Amino acid sequence: MTTENLISEIRKKQSFLCVGLDVDLDKIPEFLLKEEDPIFSFNKAIIDATHPYAVAYKPNTAFYEAYGLKGWKSLEKTIKYLNENYPQIFTIADAKRGDIGNTSSRYAKAFFKDLGFDSVTVAPYMGKDSIEPFLAFENKHTILLALTSNGGAFDFQTKLTGEEELYKLVLKTSKEWSNSENLMYVVGATKAEYFAEIRKIIPNSFILVPGIGAQGGNLKEVCKYGLTDNVGLLVNSSRGIIYASNNTDFAEAAAVEAKNIQLEMKAILDGVR
Ligand SMILES: O=c1ccn([C@@H]2O[C@H](COP(=O)(O)O)[C@@H](O)[C@H]2O)c(=O)[nH]1
């Protein structure tokens, strides 16, 4: 998907919501466990109910890998379902990959070509040659971890490397890489106070923002400095939406949560016009 397609979906839906599909069999409604593929049944119901309010879906691969081959098959079915039924919706494989170039090119093929995701999250730690194999794919997006939502982000990411913090070095250095126009970045909603500085370095790039909902990040705070003329944000909530209920009404309850966030997003977008 091109960035223009993503922006046009955001404008149409007045939403920059990404729904995280982090499926845990201990948390989904018990009646679904009788289904042949409970993970896919759950995802399908959540996607069908929430898609009017969301512009992106983000399965975190850990939640599928944890169930072995069966889990991976559920992931394949989920991305196929999204691509066939909602091709205008942006898809993110939250896999946090990155390795020596030769290996990264296999990861890129797996997520972009075989599975057909629009984007994949990657860790910057191994540098340029670990990321460029992802960036080589046209109309695919590589989402680089910059400043993550967890407490451990302060262990390395905010430490000074010379005059500036490591996350700033990541942002600046990555702009020099080949096909850097295919980069997006991850910045946690719990780090809203950093957005002003971050936007000085990447004024127009899309930022994937996890951490509202269960992790307590604040949407308005993120938008204060995070929004760009083209919106430039994809704000993710996983548990806060998909586990709104664990009864037969789970999909409707997820839709209510997603709609509430979409309405808040619309009000913010209306306010900056
Ligand atoms: O900095 C980061 C990077 C990724 N994540 C992932 O996003 C979702 C958040 O889930 P919630 O249930 O909405 O808290 C999850 O898949 C994380 O692994 C993140 O939280 N922070």
UniProtKB/TrEMBL annotation:
Pathway in which the depicted protein is active: Pyrimidine metabolism; UMP biosynthesis via de novo pathway; UMP from orotate: step 2/2
Catalyzed reaction equations: orotidine 5'-phosphate + H(+) = UMP + CO2
Q: What class of enzyme is it?
A: lyase
Q: Which UniProt keywords apply?
A: Decarboxylase, Lyase, Pyrimidine biosynthesis
Q: List residues of the Orotidine 5'-phosphate decarboxylase domain.
A: 16-254
What Enzyme Commission number does this protein have?
4.1.1.23
> Would I find Lipoprotein among this entry's keywords?
no
Superkingdom assignment: Bacteria
SUPFAM superfamilies in the record, alphabetically?
Ribulose-phoshate binding barrel
The record's GO molecular-function terms, alphabetically, read: orotidine-5'-phosphate decarboxylase activity
Q: Give the residues annotated as active site.
A: K96 (proton donor)
InterPro entries of this UniProt entry?
Answer: Aldolase_TIM, OMPdecase_type-2, OMPdeCOase_dom, RibuloseP-bd_barrel
Q: Does the keyword Membrane apply?
A: no
Per the similarity annotation, which family is this? Belongs to the OMP decarboxylase family. Type 2 subfamily.
This chain belongs to which protein, by name? Orotidine 5'-phosphate decarboxylase
Q: Kindly list the organism's lineage.
A: Bacteria, Pseudomonadati, Bacteroidota, Flavobacteriia, Flavobacteriales
